[in-house]
């Protein structure tokens, strides 16, 4: 009884998360494909080993609408470039904030000194 309840809960999970629809879409496309893999072992082995260059993996990826390997590699390179630019901009931002804080701390002193100098000059005038 408990085993059946677990199976039913898992089935509902697969259905609500869209896994069943995705698998059905792939299997229907595979059924309609004239150039099928030679064996089911080849099919499952390509998936289990993460063989992204295998034709089965590419077939599934294509049918599910995922990016190709070259698209993925381009996106990874772009992400790396953007991360470097982000790091440079962040360092520049921090340096600018540090300089601004430095100016804020020195400016009141300069204004006070200028004010004192003016007052001293006024007192010294005949």
Give the gist of this structure.
With 126 residues, the protein is an all-alpha fold. It has two domains: 1-66, no CATH class; 68-126.
Secondary structure topology:
Elements: H1 2-16, H2 19-32, H3 40-48, H4 55-64, H5 69-124
Would you mind describing this structure in some detail?
The chain has 126 residues and is mostly helical. The chain folds into 2 domains: 1-66, no CATH class; 68-126. Helix content is 83%, strand content 0%. It has helices spanning 2-16, 19-32, 40-48, 55-64, 69-124. The longest helix has 56 residues, at 69-124. It is elongated and about 95 Å long. It comes from Dioscorea alata (Purple yam). This is Associate of Myc 1 protein.
Oligomer: single chain
Pattern of helices and strands: HHHHH
In which range does the helix fraction lie?
over 70%
- Total strands: 0
The biggest beta sheet is recorded as: none
């Amino acid at each position: 009884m408990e085993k059946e309840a677990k199976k039913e809960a898992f089935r509902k999970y697969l259905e609500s998360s869209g896994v069943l629809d995705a698998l059905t879409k792939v299997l229907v496309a595979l059924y309609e494909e004239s150039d099928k893999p030679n064996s089911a072992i080849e099919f499952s082995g390509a998936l289990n080993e993460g063989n992204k260059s295998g034709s089965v993996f590419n077939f599934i990826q294509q049918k599910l609408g995922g990016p190709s390997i070259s698209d993925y590699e381009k996106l990874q390179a772009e992400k790396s470039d953007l991360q470097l630019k982000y790091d440079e901009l962040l360092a520049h931002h921090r340096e600018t904030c540090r300089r601004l804080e430095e100016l804020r701390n020195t400016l009141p002193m300069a204004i006070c000194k200028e004010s004192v100098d003016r007052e001293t000059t006024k007192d010294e005038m005949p």
